[in-house]
Amino acid sequence: MDDGIIEEWFMNYEKDITSYLVYYTGTSDVEDLVQDTFVIALHKLKSFQHKSHPKTWLLTIARHLVIARHRKKKVWERVKRYLTPDQSTKNELEERSIKNMENLQLYEAIQRLPSRHRDVIILRGILELTPIEASDVLKCSANKVNVQFHRALKKLQLILEMEGYNHEKSANYSG
């Protein structure tokens, strides 16, 4: 029975979880994270109290998973430097295949935001969650989400303007 609910949630929310993780991690290689999110949800399903929407619960799991992996990776990088001090550690980033230049600029600008602003931009602006749904994921009030979203949009606009992003061109492109 638990498998059925998770399968249903996977069918309904996998694209949202994937999209969130792509923007949050900065890579399109998130299949393992998506799979792990749903595996964790399956194991913790009994603790799901239906106080929030399943999608926001899954997004919370995905967010915590990425944060935990990032912490582990940072610790491992520090340990690795001590084990191999004469070898320079290289950051091997996968090449991003984002075809649309405006999306690339937006993506890079989002990555430059502080994490609290990046979270709210992804949840509210990209995934189009309501303030209440976003507040469930971020564990804060809906009012705080609205304030953070407004501030994040201003910062994002400033970053894009500093980089010479042409708003008129993108507005004409969408119409």
UniProtKB/TrEMBL annotation:
Every RNA polymerase sigma-70 region domain range: 10-74
Protein family according to the UniProt entry: Belongs to the sigma-70 factor family. ECF subfamily.
Keyword Transcription regulation on entry: yes
Domain RNA polymerase sigma factor 70 region 4 type: 104-156
InterPro entries, sorted: RNA_pol_sigma-70-like, RNA_pol_sigma-70_dom, RNA_pol_sigma70_ECF_CS, RNA_pol_sigma70_r2, RNA_pol_sigma70_r4_t2, RNA_pol_sigma_r2, RNA_pol_sigma_r3/r4-like, WH-like_DNA-bd_sf
Keywords: DNA-binding, Sigma factor, Transcription, Transcription regulation
Cited NCBIfam families: sigma70-ECF (TIGR02937)
Protein's organism: Fictibacillus iocasae
RNA-binding listed as a keyword: no
Protein name: RNA polymerase sigma factor
